[in-house]
Amino acid sequence: MDAHSSCSTYSCGFCARKHILYMALGMKILYISGATGADYMADCAMHGLRSLLGPDLVDVKKMWFMYDTSEPCMFHSLYKLLPDIEVDRDNVEAKIQSRYYDAVVYGSVHRCRDYMQLVLDAYPSNKIAFIDGEDGPELAPAVGHGWYFKREIYEPHPNLLPIQFGIPKEKIRDARFSHKTRLMAHCDPRDRSTYQYYDSEKRYYDQYSEAWFGYTKKKGGWDCMRHHEIIAAGCVPYFEGFDDCPEGTLATFDRSIFAEARGLCDSWVTMRKVNLVQQ
Amino acid sequence: MGDYEEGKLGPAIDKWGNLMEAAYRSLQTTEDIAKRILERVS
Fold it and tell me: Where are the domains of chain B?
């Protein structure tokens, strides 16, 4: 029983959102992407939508790399997880025209805009979502035609909704103090020679689980799977340069964490507490 | 949160534990992303 079990009013934001989600769970969603793989934002969204909707999330170009039947992948956290269930991918154009799907999501709007004119002709803009997970601030020519979710927002814009990477919930580990053996995790984006974990997701997560802090920074974009993977492994990110991150980017992160984490880690080094935490 | 017990390992570790809990709260799952999209198009 939660605090809202006796409340079901639309004046309550929590309950209104819960009601909208309940209605949404019966929806059929057409998910359009190039299905090229390792497009993290598109792949995160697809994983979440399929997890909630099952076969009612139709990846019209089959995102084969998301399924447990696919070949091993060098990238971690998102791939080969979903059961390869039967999904009806037939007669998509006719189904768009008849609005068989309740809504259409473009998973990577810069890279794939298949069926665009058909979709715009058949659906009102509030039933179309565009996901822009690119590293830079450039916008695709879809702004204003639907809900535009943007990962890297550098300037406030009235038509952009922030979005960022996420982690499949089954990947999130408890932090275990008794497993900590290092101050800083081995994998370090400043040193490519430490990228030694492509062959094993377990080893990759373990080296974060065994550390108190994991170094991370902006690379192609401010948002990076590494930040999320560090936390999912039960490790605190040591995020260099986060003070310069635009406010619209990485919007769900509590910004105070990173400054405090750097301060704590630096103080441990200064106070020679490294031995304490490496015991 | 795992085997963490506040006060057991000293204030520095408690501070780390508080940061870890705040980081977990900030962490978004793929289902959270999906819900944000569904809330808009539903």
Answer: 11-41
